[in-house]
């Protein structure tokens, strides 16, 4: 790779990161469900065409925004992450429960569940029944997080983490137990 293509690649990644960072900031600070493309490009200092060069629209940007957090959760749930990281992630969700309540128990919950399911499926790779396991684990996690955010489930980040990790491992190990 020559210097020009390296610079343009890093510039492209920096622009994408700037758009994502701006979106996250506007999303957390705003009253609206999602910031408009016009608001994002103005704040990020990029052209509208640049935005669409990186993302198909605000919903694709929303999915990417969520993927950072939920990729880490998926990593923990399939046994690749540490318990302490899962506890930190649940504490982070609790600290942001005002926004979390809207996202995890409202109309976006299904969309977020689909993002989590896709990320779990990626983490599980070629494992037998990976798609089914991803759907089962995602459904369990989303139900628990939704109940936790709305106050239907009162527990600590530590306890919730432990139960989600245990349940995920039980789902993943069920095939082995059943077939033996």
UniProtKB/TrEMBL annotation:
Query: What are the residue boundaries of the HTH tetR-type domain, all occurrences included?
Result: 13-73
InterPro entries, from UniProt?
Homeodomain-like_sf (IPR009057), HTH_TetR (IPR001647)
Q: Name one Pfam family in it.
A: TetR_N
Q: Which ranges form a coiled coil?
A: none
DNA-binding segment(s): 36-55
SUPFAM superfamilies per the UniProt record, alphabetical: Homeodomain-like
Residue ranges annotated as transmembrane are none
Keyword list, A-Z? DNA-binding
Q: What is this protein called?
A: TetR/AcrR family transcriptional regulator
Q: What is the lineage of its organism?
A: Bacteria, Pseudomonadati, Pseudomonadota, Alphaproteobacteria, Sphingomonadales
């Amino acid at each position: 790779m020559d210097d020009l293509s390296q610079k343009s690649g890093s510039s492209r990644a920096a622009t994408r990161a700037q758009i994502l960072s701006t979106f996250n900031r506007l999303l957390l600070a705003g009253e609206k469900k999602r910031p408009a493309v016009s608001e994002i490009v103005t704040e990020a200092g990029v052209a509208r065409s640049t935005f669409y060069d990186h993302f198909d629209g605000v919903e694709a940007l929303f999915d990417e925004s969520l993927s950072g957090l939920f990729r880490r959760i998926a990593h923990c749930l399939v046994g690749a992450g540490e318990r302490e990281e899962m506890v930190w992630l649940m504490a982070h969700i609790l600290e942001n429960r005002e926004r979390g309540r809207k996202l995890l128990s409202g109309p976006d919950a299904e969309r977020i569940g689909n993002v989590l399911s896709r990320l779990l499926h990626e983490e599980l790779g070629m494992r037998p029944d990976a798609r089914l396991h991803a759907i089962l684990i995602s459904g369990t996690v989303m139900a628990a997080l939704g109940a936790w955010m709305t106050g239907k489930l009162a527990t600590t980040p530590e306890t919730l983490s432990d139960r989600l990790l245990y349940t995920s491992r039980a789902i993943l190990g069920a095939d082995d137990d059943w077939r033996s």
